[in-house]
Amino acid sequence: MNLLLQTIQSLAQLLQEARITTVIDMVVVFFAVYEILKLLKDTRAMQMAAGIAVVAVLYQLSHWFRLTTVEFVMRQALVYVGFGVIVLFQNEIRAALTHFGNNLRNPFAFRTIREKKPLDTFDEVILAATTFAAQKTGALIVFERNVGLQEYINRGVKMDAVLSYDLLVNIFNTAAPLHDGAVVIRQRRIAAASCFLPLTLNPRLSKELGTRHRAAIGITEESDAFVIVVSEETGVISCVERGYITRNLDSRKLRAVLSRAMDLSQAPASPRRYRRRIWLAEDSFTDISNVDSLTGSDLNETPPSGTPVFIGGNERRIGERGFVSPGAFAKQGGNWLDLIRGFFNYVFRRNARLKLIAAVLTGALYLSANTEKPIIFIVRGVPIEYSDLRGDLTIANSDNVREVTIRVRGPRDEVERLRPDSFRIKVPMNGKNPGDRVVRLREDAVIAEKPLNIEILEFDPQRMTVSLERQVEQEVEIKPSFRGALPSDYELLSFKVTPDKTRLRGPESRVFAFQSVGTETIWLNMHPQAFTEKYKIDVKDPRVEIIGVQEVEVHVEIRPIVFKKRFDLVLNEASTGNVRVTVEVEGIKSVVEKLKGSDIRLTVAPAGDERPGEVAIRAELPRELRDSARVKTVTPGFAGLKK
């Protein structure tokens, strides 16, 4: 894919240097303008197009003559021209797209002529049309060709019936419910009846034409359909093709026109043959204005004898048909002169006025595009690629030398579409040794890719210092990264990392600066007790790569903090008198610190036979504190009884 893109870019650069692209550019624009003018000819859109052209011309003149106010007004008006064109010319745009899509053919290619079917299959239509004309019954019969009419078929009454005289007469009977509308014929079958068609908006049509005729013209303006119309008032038979109507047809003329339009043969079907495409015809529209001149030979499926044809068959056909052969070639000089004369008339005389207007508009557009003053634009963040770098070296300061700002100059419409990735700038580093290397972008950088009409004026910065270092590896210890504080009653006892080492790779100065690496942040305040979890290794320097263990398991031991406190109390009992007692309490720090001497209750109990005449001293904590604190010692533990 990259090779193909480079080939296309090289070819485009070569054509640009040879100035061939200018010729191609003007030819393409000329044909586009010419086709648009043909579509707008003799329609109401011509006047609207002229108005838009006046606005565009005023804008260009104001730009050339530095009429600032006029240029500002015209520029603001042209902002909405695109939306106006879509709204005002929606029918013309639809017709143009249909026309272009239907005529996308190779003008130099040989095409296969489809086997022509006899005209007998449409004799029923011709007979029905003449019957309607005699009875002055209105009829509208539409023949679908290359462009589908399914949209209009869906709006009507679907039939999919065999095409016959009786069915047509019944459909267009004024007492029948389906007579109002058109019949659509698809592949020699009646696809639908009572179909409603779009009306033409051409203001130049005769007022004698009613709604039926305007519908026939409207459908042929939006598609390549062929339509037969019978007038209800006069009984006149007409046919419509590509928006042009031919009237006053009898059965003989209608047969000839239908044969040409539907590519039929009045002779029995013959084997498939190949012929040269008739490239002198401007399009597929057949001129039927002089239909009286059509003869039987005009309807034959093969060219008349003596016509130059570029492909051959067997020797018998060469002799009969005038195909290219050494003998026939010499006898056809007159035909070749006619061919050249017809080509000259087609290129220079046919629609000469439209072609002259198209040429003038093309020249004006070319001057407008090429006389526009280039503007200067700044593109930031253009990436730089370093190529041919030694395998054992790496760029230590790559974060600072990977992007550059460039100042460019070019046409406004192209400059405003520029993005950082519109450019590819390469700096070759072959033969460079470790150390700081100065790169002068104007001299050392290679512009691998840029838009054709864009000129790079300046780099910012103009030079860069690239630090080349050896790429090394090192094994380092892994330490957990603790953050946050445990609750005041708990403490971190120990931790264990499994595995406890990994390997790093990167620039020498960066890698050797690491004695250890940490993990993701471990928040201690989220863990009030021992836990084991997995964490990824975190290296803060983006130029250093982890090539060893990427994830470790961390086990942390957490325990409550044990706090001890002594209380000096006095035991006041009748049996013992006043006795000074020291009580030591241990437990959770926050609980023991808040404990007071009055919270401890001293009691006595019999000492037993081992200590006659003494009692045991006991200290008790409140019931609600017994789970978080306990009495460790009571001194003295015994007291003598009074005598």
pLDDT < 50 runs, ≥5 residues: 106-116, 265-324
Quick one: overall form?
A: elongated
The CATH architecture of the largest domain would be: 3-Layer(aba) Sandwich
* First-residue to last-residue Cα separation: 113 Å
CATH fold category name of the largest domain: YojJ-like (1
Give the beta-strand count. Answer: 29
Number of helices: 19
Which percent band covers the strand fraction?
Answer: 25-35%
* Arithmetic mean pLDDT: 78
CATH level 1 class label of the largest domain: Alpha Beta
Kindly give the count of domains.
Answer: 5
- CATH superfamily annotation of the largest domain: DNA integrity scanning protein, DisA, N-terminal domain
Question: What gyration radius follows from the Cα positions, in whole Å?
Answer: 49 Å
**Biggest sheet descriptor:** 9 strands, mixed
Q: Which class best fits the helix and strand makeup?
A: alpha+beta
Question: Would you mind describing this structure in some detail?
Answer:
- This protein has 643 residues and is an alpha+beta fold.
- The protein contains 19 helices and 29 strands.
- Strands 11, 14, 17, 18, 19, 20, 21, 22 and 23 form a nine-stranded mixed β-sheet that branches. Strands 3-5-4-2-6-7-8 form a seven-stranded mixed β-sheet, with helices on both faces.
- It starts with a helix and ends with a strand.
- The relative contact order is 0.06.
- Mean pLDDT is 78; it is low at 106-116 and 265-324.
